[in-house]
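Notes from hallway chat w/ T.B., transcribed later so I don't forget. T.B. wanted the structure written out for a chain they're using in a teaching module, and asked if we could keep both sequence and structure tokens in one place. Agreed to drop them here.
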Amino acid sequence: MDSSFMYVKEKHMSDEKLVVCMGKGSQKDAAEALARRVHAPLSDQPGKNLTLLIDGSGISLNGYGLSYRGDFETMLHRITDGRLQHEMLVRAAKTKEPNPTAIDATAGMGEDSLLLAACGYEVTLYEQNPVIAALLKDSIRRAKKHPILGEIVNRMHLVEGNSIEGMAQRMEVPDLIYLDPMFPARQKSGLINKKLQLIQKLEHPCLQEELLLKTAMDLHPKKIIIKRPLKGKNLAGKTPGYTIKGKAIRYDCFV
């Protein structure tokens, strides 16, 4: 459930009253670097609204009675014991290309990128929001130490920045471009709702759908896959070549 898109003038993080707070086991220099990165003050107390907590375990986003820390280990059951090939995204992304490459232009917390990397793609992830990028980078760092996840996340390369600008400047043509502009919660999982509630405090659904899709198409990848709500409108009004449908979402595919 990736939610990484806002191509409007970004609010300064202090507008959301975000603070960076040091927890047990954190290092002051790391906390100061994080505060500079997300443009927020460093505080010894949690903020009134959103707090980015850095401690010995990593980085978490807290506020409004909720707490969220990215953790790819929660996805192990989806990529092991033969279950990976049953994932709708993996079915949509299936390729015979050796060493395939992909762009996840709307990375969010990287769950879908992990699925692509698990099935062999070398994935470039774009995430514009510095807070989400910090959470994602921390998730990847921790996953690299895992005996199963380590090899997979080594194929995930995070770029903190605007994917429309990044794709427009890119020279190499990827095999796949994946788009998941944020849309309202569509599952009942408490964890997913918790994540969305906090992430939505930081950014909002894509406001430049046409430019996003046009930029992706201008790169001429072999395939573009777009995640949409099952009954949602086509992105930018474009009709896909074919669609893979699930109970709550669908994947629109352009070849």
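Follow-up for T.B.: The chain has a mean pLDDT of 87. Might be a good example for the class.
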